[in-house]
Amino acid sequence: MVHYYDDADLPRFGEIGKDAPELWQKFNAYYGAVFEDGALSEREKALIALAVSHAVQCPYCIDAYTQGCLEKGSNLEQMTEAVHVAAAIKGGAALVHGVQMRKKAEGISM
Amino acid sequence: MNQSLLKRNHPLAVIDAQRRVLESDAAVPAFGERLAAADLHPLTATGIETFQINVGKMCNQVCKHCHVDAGPDRTEIMTRETMELCLAALDQTNAQVVDLTGGAPEMNPDFRWLVDQIVARGRRVIDRSNLTILVAQGYEDMCQFLADRNIEVTASLPYYLESQTDAQRGDHVFERSIRALKNLNAVGYGMPDSGLTLNLVYNPTGAFLPPKQAGIEADYKRELRRRHGIEFNSLYTITNIPISRFLDFLIESGNYGPYMQKLSNAYNPEAAKQVMCRSTISIGWDGQLYDCDFNQMLEITVGDGLPTHVRDFDAAALARREICIGNHCYGCTAGSGSSCTGAVAD
């Protein structure tokens, strides 16, 4: 059976640089800098990345940042709360569009 | 799981089987090649600063990751006669630190005698404790015994939460560990100006690397104080070495290959330069000599043609010996490195 997603593809990520090496290098440098300790700690940034991974529903990112969060010292309580933050924002984003629905309905209704 | 691999007649209880798994792993380069690339091959000792004595494999716990395969069913215990040989060897060196490990070292019937002998020699003693033995029946006065002699306590607590700790070390271990830590605090350990040092050891509760030591130490200090009112001095992060029961876990959970790859990818030559075996001698319960506690469990005695028993201890030759290496050594050189006193490199 063919799968669109394959965990063996994650270590092959670097292959995307083959035909555009300068852009890949710039992306890598930027990516690395983003995750360094700064105003936010590496651990906090990994938790944000984990939440975003769920919001964008990227299985590669979920794989990488589950390991990443554990290796930064986070625990399952914190990681589960991070996923709930993603779920709340995703759910809230859907729900708040209900205002648009209501405005449209009001506009065309008697 | 409440028995050792040995008691269960597990295939990995045969040490050769562990060595075959590690040395037949084609997924990672041979560890010696990585050392050679950093001009560290052959790896040689720089002296003997630490005497690490494993006084036996008996333990009151059966942790899932134990590199010793220790447990209540292990009866290998160092005799007083062998301890006397260790002390004679210690007298040949200027090693200032004697690190007592096991099993649960306190369970050796001559533990207190050995501690007193080392203290009388003016050397610093570390008791590498599993904590729960300190609240076990018959050991109620152990905290005070250690405090009266200013013994440094380095204690295992793989995480500051119950779920992770018990998943690795067994049911109710966290609750008993917290009680032991409170008892240690009560006699002064970890408290400001007491002079009694209590260090904790973090190790990953799965197939992943430890976090940076300073960051997780701050988390431990904040959370143990907030949740339990516990104080301690330093936290050491230690990487799980792929041998014995942790090797069994890796293979059974399908994590062996990815974990070895992870260790190899994180290989740090700066950590390799500072591995603790270069300044340590490790002595087994039966007096055999090893480069470290991990080589000891893989039954790889000191090489270089040197005598392998403490009765024939040659301090000068051992201080400059060639270290025996294998792919399990990747565990001590990944990321910030790993030693019995935690990370070794930034």
Judging from the principal axes of the Cα atoms, what is the shape of chain A?
extended
Number of helices of chain A: 5
What is the CATH domain class of chain B? Alpha Beta
- Elements of chain B, N to C (H/E): HHEHEHEHEHHEHEHHHEEHHH
What is the fourth-level CATH superfamily of the domain at 41-110 in chain A?
A: AhpD-like
CATH class term of the domain at 41-110 in chain A: Mainly Alpha
The biggest chain-chain interface is: A-B, 11 and 14 residues
Give the gist of this structure.
The complex is a heterodimer of chains A (110) and B (346). Chain A has helices spanning 21-34, 42-55, 59-71, 76-96, 98-108.
Keywords:
heterodimer; A: 110 residues; AhpD-like; 5 helices; 0% strand; extended; B: 346 residues; alpha/beta; TIM Barrel; eight-stranded mixed β-sheet; 14 helices
Structure, described:
The complex is a heterodimer of chains A (110) and B (346). By secondary structure, chain A is an all-alpha fold. Chain A has a domain at 41-110: AhpD-like (Up-down Bundle). Chain A has five helices and no strands. The longest helix of chain A has 21 residues, at 76-96. The radius of gyration of chain A is 19 Å and the shape is extended. The termini of chain A are far apart. Chain B has a single domain, classed as Aldolase class I (TIM Barrel, Alpha-Beta Barrel), CATH 3.20.20.70. Chain B has helices at 15-23, 31-37, 80-91, 111-120, 142-148, 162-169, 173-186, 213-228, 244-252, 256-265, 269-273, 293-297, 315-318, 330-333, and strands at residues 50-54, 97-101, 124-129, 152-156, 198-202, 235-237, 280-283, 289-290. In chain B, a hairpin with a 5-residue loop joins β7 (280-283) and β8 (289-290). Chain B has 346 residues and is of the alpha/beta class. Chain B has an eight-stranded mixed sheet with strand order 6-5-4-3-2-1-7-8. Chain A binds chain B through residues 41-43, 67, 70-73, 75-77, and chain B through 159, 161, 163-164, 204, 206, 208-212, 215-216, 219.
